[in-house]
Amino acid sequence: MSGLQYNLHFEKLCRTLRLGELAGEPEPISGGFLHRMYAVETTQGKYAVKALNPQIMLRPTAMQNYIHSEQIANIAVHHVPALPAKRFNGIFMHEIDKQYYLVFDWVLGKSLKPDEITITHCNKLGAILADLHMTDFSGLDVTNDPSNHEQPADWNDYLLKGQEHHAAWVNLLRENINKLYEWNTKAIIAAEQLASNMVISHRDMDPKNVLWIQDNPVLIDWEAAGYTSPMQELTETAVYWSESEAGNVDKGRFLAFIDGYTKRYGTLEADWRTVLDSGFLGKLGWLEYNLKRSLRIECTDEEEQRLGTEQAVGTIHAIRRYADMSSELEKWLINKSI
Question: Residue ranges of the Aminoglycoside phosphotransferase domain (predicted)?
Answer without folding.
Answer: 27-263
